[in-house]
Amino acid sequence: MIITIDGPAGAGKGTVAQFLAQKYNLKKLDTGMLYRALAKAVLEAQIDVSTQQEKIIQLAQQVTIDATEQEGLRKEEVANLASIVAIIPDVRTILNQIQRDFAHANPHPYWGVILDGRDIGTVICPEADCKIFLTASSEVRAMRRNQQIGGTPHHHHEISKIMIERDMRDQNRRVAPLSAAENAYTIDTTYLTINEVCSRAAYYIDQVYLKNKNSSSIGA
Ligand code: CDP
User: Fold this and answer.
1) Residues 4-15: pLDDT tens digits?
2) What are the beta bridge partners of residue 27?
3) Where does 2-219 sit in CATH, by number?
4) What separation in angstroms does the CA of 154 have from each of 11, 80, 148, 149, 160?
5) C-alpha torsion angle, residues 120, 28, 195, 183 (rounded to 10)
6) Distance 117 CA to ligand 1 centre (A)
7) Confidence class of residue 167 from pLDDT cuts 50, 70 and 90?
8) ∠ CA(72), CA(22), CA(74), 5° rounding?
9) Which residues does ligand 1 sit against, CB inside 6 Å?
10) How many angstroms does the Cα of residue 192 sit away from the middle of ligand 1?
11) Beta strand residue intervals within the chain, DSSP E
């Protein structure tokens, strides 16, 4: 069972993925953390992103799943640079392989895998069993992100501005832009509580499971 969750920053992907991973015993990968791990390495090596693409590509080759567990990846500065290095096609090719290997490794004793990001349902796992796309208004997403990082109300405007810039970069890049897969279930989370979003996502997974079960028993 492969479940994908895509959507822009602050739409609730992380919380929903965590809930579903627990409910269905799924192995989880937050794919944004791979891009963030690379961005952190680029910052630490003081690489100039506009002139030293080769060095960024070399660092991408050293990114591993373990690197996603390190501290210091949650900062907005890191997220912002992540969306800049994520434009480089060779970086995506390298990180895509890590994500596909994760999705297709035997996840025993798990029931399956869940990956969240921007292009999981469209590029990484187009064959996924259930694809969910989360959206929300940019105002609400900025408010959630500000709360998440413990910012005061006067940070809201700054967070909102950075987030809109990041959205634009993610939506308009040439390779694997943020978009919902044709067969994704879209949930607009603007006016929903997190519990409502989680129940709706779980409902979609249950529907897919029942459909798969019925079609395999009909074929048997
Ligand atoms: O947590 P949030 O949604 O704010 O961001 P994230 O998922 O940690 O991703 C950080 C950045 O990595 C995004 O803005 C994207 O530019 C990039 N990313 C991507 O290009 N493809 C993915 N599958 C995941 C993240």
Assistant:
1) 999 999 999 999
2) 113
3) 3.40.50.300
4) 21, 20, 14, 13, 11
5) 30
6) 6
7) very high
8) 10
9) 9, 13, 31-32, 35-36, 79, 82-83, 86, 117-120, 166, 170
10) 22
11) 2-6, 26-30, 112-117, 130-135, 185-188
